[in-house]
Amino acid sequence: MLTRRHFVISAAAMFSAPISSGALAAPVSDSTRWSKWDAQVTPPNYNPATSNPWGVDPRFLPQRVEANDGLRPGDIHVDAVARYLYHIRTDGTAMRYGVAIGRGDLYEPGTYTIRRKAKWPTWTPTKAMIKRDPGIYAQHADGMNGGPTNPLGSRAFYLFVGNRDTYLRIHGSPQPRSIGGRASSGCVRMVMAHIIGLYDQVATGSTAYLYPAEDRISARS
User: Fold this and answer.
1) By three-state DSSP, how is residue 55 classified?
2) Distance from CA of residue 135 to its chain's centroid?
3) Burial of 50 by CB count in 10 Å (0-12 exposed, 13-18 middle, 19+ buried)?
4) C-alpha to C-alpha distances, 72 to 89, 154, 199, 200, nearest whole angstrom
5) 101, 151, 179, 182: which has the fewest C-beta neighbours closer than 10 Å?
6) In Å, how far from its chain's centre is CA 88?
7) Ranges under pLDDT 70 in the chain
8) pTM for the predicted model, two decimal places
9) Is 186 left (phi over 0), alpha (psi -120 to 50) or beta?
């Protein structure tokens, strides 16, 4: 015959302690603050062609240029040598923006599909990034909320090969002075105000062509 004491002991062995609620929540982006953040990173009386409180080389300010023949409207082309991103328009022109690319061998030229876009995205460093630079990235292993100090900045385009997320992004950066250089962990960086202007012009499903950087070209010649 089972006694009440036997039942209590057996029940204690069968069931673990209450599940802890101390697990860290996934990073979030507060959409109620997006407009405020947009204003925070956009200069007063903003003119894309002339506003430059960031001190970037003037050639990296947005410009409308003539596009090469045969390029499909809507697609993106990144000239990694000149550090330009071109968004092809329907009228035979393109909008050109300055960018920064991945340092060393972290930049990955290729043909990608933009399968996702995000405003003020959250960010989580990859395991490879944490292993490579633990002093920088380990503190953010659980992710970072969206906002003006987030490494992905104000907007992001997510680059895929087929259905595989490459973890490469074209994104805004809180470090605008890096534009024109090789500074990222593989992504293509833009000035945050510039990518805000570009964001609504780029449709998911568009193709992004990332061309080889100068070191790849030199190695082949």
Assistant:
1) coil
2) 21
3) exposed
4) 8, 26, 18, 17
5) 182
6) 20
7) 1-24, 133, 135-137, 139-140, 216-221
8) 0.85
9) left
